[in-house]
Amino acid sequence: MIWCGPRAAASAVVAVALSFSLGSMSVAEEAPQRVVAVGGAVTEIVYALGEEGRLVARDTTSNHPPAALDLPDVGYIRALSAEGVLSVNPDMILSETGAGPIETIELLREAAVPVVEVNGGFSRDAIGDKVMSVAAVLGVPEKGAALAAKVDAEIAAAMTRIDATHRPKVLFVLSTAGGRVMAGGQNTSADAIIALAGGQNAAIGFEGFKPITDEAIVTSGAEVILMMDREGDHDASLADLKAHPSLGQTPAVQKGALVRIDGMLLLGFSVRTGQAISDLAAALAKVAS
Fold it and tell me: Per the domain annotation, does 58 fall within a domain?
């Protein structure tokens, strides 16, 4: 069902829509006090609202602020552990959309633990909606309105500093594992942050994060390669990119135009998006000049 928090609905700032995965459920008179935050964007909002004292656990993607790492980790957002979640005796799971697996969600239903999903999105308005939604669930709509206004002002300020005279073609590479390039197409968080920072997505003709053909890479005209700053099998050095048969042919790799930014900062579309826009815009201006 779709629920609008009574105090949030009265706000002139934004209408808040939350979907409860428990089907029919009445709105509790008291705000939750033992919350498991699932999804880095949600966790960052809770901290920014100053309501982190209610958190009893978090998922693996919730790596900011650093203090969040002190909370018990109940697993990756799409691979949650029901046992881990229930072990902290929560009175609510506050999650970004897409939490799972379904078996875990069903077990939480059976245990009568409400799971609240906050709608996603990759725009300024969507960020404001996320902030107001989380604030409504926690019963602090006034804090939510103030934070949403602050975050939007930071985004607006970041965008005014962008050099619009040149919009470099940016290819977001999610992974090169096994030599297979996974790129961010249209209607993705990568596509949105590239546009907000003054670039244009070099991966066109498909939506989502998907494998991209060698031909599409070579013909993309990518002037900048954008990657998350991380380690492991999905990471690739500039030398690795130069050795790749298709990435090595792009103008970006040939001139060493590689930008790395923390993944949650870059793609989270939460309270730090203004910083993400500023950081990416500055990096694009530096490497694409």
Answer: yes
pTM score, two decimals?
A: 0.88
When computed from its CA atoms, the radius of gyration of the chain, rounded to whole angstroms, is 20
Predicted confidence pLDDT, tens digits, the chain (289 residues): 223 333 333 332 333 334 443 333 333 457 899 999 999 999 999 999 999 999 999 999 999 999 999 999 999 999 999 999 999 999 999 999 999 999 998 999 899 999 999 999 999 999 999 999 999 999 999 999 999 999 999 999 999 999 888 899 999 999 999 999 999 999 999 999 999 999 999 999 999 999 999 999 999 999 999 999 976 555 688 999 999 999 999 999 999 999 999 999 999 999 999 999 999 999 999 997 7
Task: Assess whether 42 and 140 both reside in one domain.
Answer: yes
Q: Which domain holds residue 116?
A: 2-154
Which run of H or of E encompasses 55?
strand 55-58
Number of domains forming the structure of the chain: 2
**Calpha distance 109→203 (Å, rounded):** 40
Specify the residue for token string 């949403």. 148
Quick check: is 129 in a domain? Answer: yes
The CATH number covering residue 23 comes to 3.40.50.1980
Instruction: Answer yes or no: do 7 and 143 share one domain.
Output: yes
Integer angstrom CA distances of residue 127 from 136, 191, 223, 271: 14, 16, 29, 8
